[in-house]
Fold this sequence. Notes:
It is built from 13 helices and nine strands. The chain is an alpha/beta fold. Strands 3-2-1-9-8-7 form a six-stranded parallel sheet. A three-stranded parallel sheet has the order 4-5-6, with no helix packed on it. The radius of gyration is 19 Å and the shape is globular.
Amino acid sequence: MTDQQVDESGKDDSMPYRLGLPAWAFPGWRNTYLIDRPSMLASYSSVFNAVEGNTTFYQVPSAVTVKAWADAIEGKDFRFCFKLPRNITHQSQPDMETLMLFLDRIAPLADKMGPFQLQFPKWAGMAHLRRLKPVFDAVASHYDAVVEVRSPELFTQPELLEPLLENYGFGRVMLDARALYQGNLQHPDVLAAVHEKPDVPVLATVYNRLAFVRLILHPDDTDNQRWVDEWAMRTAQWLREGLIPNIMIHCPNNFYCPKFAERFHSTLINMADVTIPALPPWPVPQQGDLIL
């Protein structure tokens, strides 16, 4: 997954889509899937070509941190899909000073940016979004972005959001938590997480050619494959249409995310009409399939 990944025969071995996880440094992955030498991000980006980067939702990174991130992915075809800080998206009046600082800090990563995630809470309907014109103007002038809304009105009446998406060229996040809510809700990992994972309708419309999926799978793997199959089929169709989808694999217990992502990738390989290379090997060699 480097910027120029062609083997000796001249075959292009690059990935036609973006596959990532919610983070790159979950402690449970260390010495199981990934290593921290020279860094967890360097290790993670040797396998995956995108990441959500939830860290920016909680705080603006320092210039030193951004430099370390840039160094970790140097020479790799990798994209950060950062969330805007929550005091921009989750307050009745956005903190524009924080937004300007955030955009300034991440500027050194500009050529490694995937779509920003503009994630809004359940209470944020169109009345709130209309107040955020300065935010949308600032983001759209520099980067692609996808909007994740949780307000019921924007699912029952998706057309309310469409003029905003069209005006700014934004996409809409496709959040799918059906595996959780149709699975065992008494699983301890699920009980601890459902308040953070909204049970919203799945809208699979692609706006402005930005296909961005957050697929939340169940820690009990019994019934996950049907959701993996469904999204792999959609992704295969998007590839036929010339899109570059972003697929982010989630689970209430992050430990399972790497193997679930590998499963999605293998499923897509078998469904797609285009050649998709296997994922590179884990930095920590796997002894057969791990028990999920």
